[in-house]
Design brief:
Two copies of one chain form a homodimer. With 201 residues, chain A is of the alpha/beta class. Chain A has one domain: P-loop containing nucleotide triphosphate hydrolases (Rossmann fold). Chain A is built from seven helices and nine strands. In chain A, the strands form two sheets. In chain A, strands 2-7-1-8-9 form a five-stranded parallel beta sheet, with helices on both faces. The radius of gyration of chain A is 17 Å and the shape is globular. The mean pLDDT of chain A is 90. Chains A and B meet through strand 9 and helix 7 of A and strand 9 and helix 7 of B.
Chain lengths: 201, 201
């Protein structure tokens, strides 16, 4: 018997592949949803409002902060990112798991406010590969890439404060590792309490 | 980089399928060995000395106890079962993982003496199925089966003291769950420390 859903929190520096990884996993694992964050960052060409993010103005975002609507929020590279309380309701209401992709600042806020949760850090195999991935993505200017790499260097030192680390070298292997973590956490008491009345547990 | 091997400890009542499950998993997962226990119980027809158990006499077993050669040992249904210290050397020496199948008494001794380790409890789906499995196995007399069921009822209450619980209803699903636990634990810091010199972790 599932008492409530499990919150999986995934953090990684820009370009480590957290979005692709999370998408592949939530698409192939049952009973887990991808949390949709709010942001003031402009959508990339392939991003859809309400699917990838709730894209909102700074005005709206700041009103939501003041209204206490976020369980965590952060200002990253000049843009706001946040997770609304409403996102987490699914854990209790539907007893479904939730996968939340947030940066290290957001994860720290969550740890303080939310009891439980499973924290996973995605590492790139090297800074060189991270740089190449950011260049290949082609959405950032050279200056932005430098800024992202600088932030990445700071962020990756937080990996020890997470429960699990995945090195995203081969995407299929990384997907399998994240799936294993989800399946394993579902076997943990008291995440799940065995519903076997005959055993009188 | 693997600092040292991980010790996976599997407990379950007789007939819950721990032997089949552990065998299937160690056969299909890389870099994990099945620990071979010592016992004074007579071998079953299909069991090979040195492969399934080290079958020894009571005299030898008791000499080993007195010599401090066991990290854990227990007397179960009139037979001795124990894990020699030598079994665990592989963790440090070869940095390979070790899967150890022991009863709840043995697991309690291990927790006190061995730092770290990942504890997994296998539950049968019901007492009726457990009884059927013991009858089907055909190695125990009716009285022995009753004794094993009585012990099982006591043992299963310990499941909450383990890190993970697997309900062995469908063997393939149970195998996948145990594999997931192994893969997930390998992603845990400090079980494994990422060896990525370029990231300056």
């Amino acid at each position: 018997m599932k008492v409530k859903g499990i919150l999986f929190v995934v953090s990684a520096p820009s370009g480590a592949g957290k979005t692709t990884l999370s998408k592949k996993v939530t698409e192939s694992v049952n009973d887990i949803y991808h949390s949709i964050s709010h942001t003031t960052r402009p959508p990339r060409p392939d991003e859809i409002n309400g699917k990838h993010y709730h894209f909102v103005t700074e005005n709206i975002f700041e009103r939501m902060i003041n209204g206490g609507e976020f369980i965590e929020w952060a200002l990253v590279h000049g843009n706001y990112y946040g997770t609304s309380m409403r996102n987490l309701e699914i854990l209790e209401k539907e007893k479904k798991d939730l996968l939340l992709v947030i940066d290290v600042q957001g994860a720290e806020q969550l740890r303080r406010k939310f009891k439980g949760g499973c924290y996973i850090f995605i590492l790139p195999p090297s800074m060189k590969i991270l740089e190449k991935r950011l260049q290949k993505r082609g959405v950032d200017h050279d200056n932005d890439i430098k800024k992202r790499l600088k932030t990445a260097e700071e962020e990756i030192h937080h990996y020890k404060t997470y429960d699990y680390t995945i090195i995203n070298d081969d995407i299929d292997e990384a997907v399998n590792q994240l799936k294993s973590i989800i399946f394993a956490e579902r076997c943990r008491y008291p995440n799940t309490i065995p519903e076997l009345p005959d055993l009188k547990l």
